[in-house]
Amino acid sequence: MTKALVVGYSGQLGHELIKVLKLDDLFKKSIEELIMTDSSMLDITCKNLVLKYILKIQPDIIINCAAYTKVDQAEDDYEKAFQVNSLGPRNLAIAAEAIGAKLIHISTDYVFDGKGVLVNGEKVPYREYDTTNPINVYGKTKLLGEEYVREFCSKYFIIRTSWLYGEKGNNFVKTIIGAAKDKGKLQVVDDQLGNPTYAGDLAERILKLALTDEYGLYHCTGKGICSWYDFAKKIIEYTEIPCEIEAVTSDNYKRKAQRPSYSCLDNMMLRSTIGDDMREWQDALYDFIKNRLML
């Protein structure tokens, strides 16, 4: 009997994972027992607690969705970000290795500096082998978490994603919808490029990988590239909220943490293993707004 543990189940991605695990017939048959924890139930920053818990429940698969994601706040609260984003994955990796479990760890596009990779004079999305160089505390702590997973666990999947949105919690889609309804006119930056990703699509790929032994580092995002401005325009178009959107530069917003201007990812490893059937970001967004989001 295959037993899966989802760490950080109450967050945006964890919510989608639980939903897929409970509703999809393939995963219901493949994973017979599901255990869910959040920070109130398991403090992943404490190695002894993690080891004790993992040794007791003996999961076959551990999926780590827990993360400190407050990018600006991390610049000041760097110790907390380090504990959750770096030590937490380390502790889970040590525990997974102790019982021979698979570990799926979720990481981020912010491990890159945003300068991009030039091919024939043009920027192309980052591939898994490209050099990382995070430019903020959040990205640095997430990268160290990746390194700890590699160092301490032999059966690992590290999955980098970007611009995530879903039904639960706060995200860009919900923020734009709320602001559009409230203000009727918005300014959104158009000089940061990335890949919007629906958490439900990511959850399905995570579970597909978890049932294989195709271990390694993955990028998994929605297909296609856009700016935050482009993303916002589509949100307004699909929701049909009367709102004017103006494109501005990042200089209009003074934030503590620097953001990468180009953090687009290429799902090369996904294509080479289970197949990259992630949807175009516009299609996923349309489906989310029309069929899954309660406006």
TrEMBL record:
Keywords: NADP, Oxidoreductase. The keyword rRNA processing does not apply. Its EC number is 1.1.1.133. The keyword rRNA-binding does not apply. GO terms for cellular component: cytosol. One of its GO terms (molecular function) is dTDP-4-dehydrorhamnose reductase activity. Pathway: Carbohydrate biosynthesis; dTDP-L-rhamnose biosynthesis. Residues 3-291 form the RmlD-like substrate binding domain. GO terms for biological process: dTDP-rhamnose biosynthetic process. InterPro entries: dTDP_dehydrorham_reduct, NAD(P)-bd_dom_sf, RmlD-like-bd. Catalyzes the reduction of dTDP-6-deoxy-L-lyxo-4-hexulose to yield dTDP-L-rhamnose. Belongs to the dTDP-4-dehydrorhamnose reductase family. This is dTDP-4-dehydrorhamnose reductase. It comes from Alkaliphilus serpentinus. The gene is rfbD.
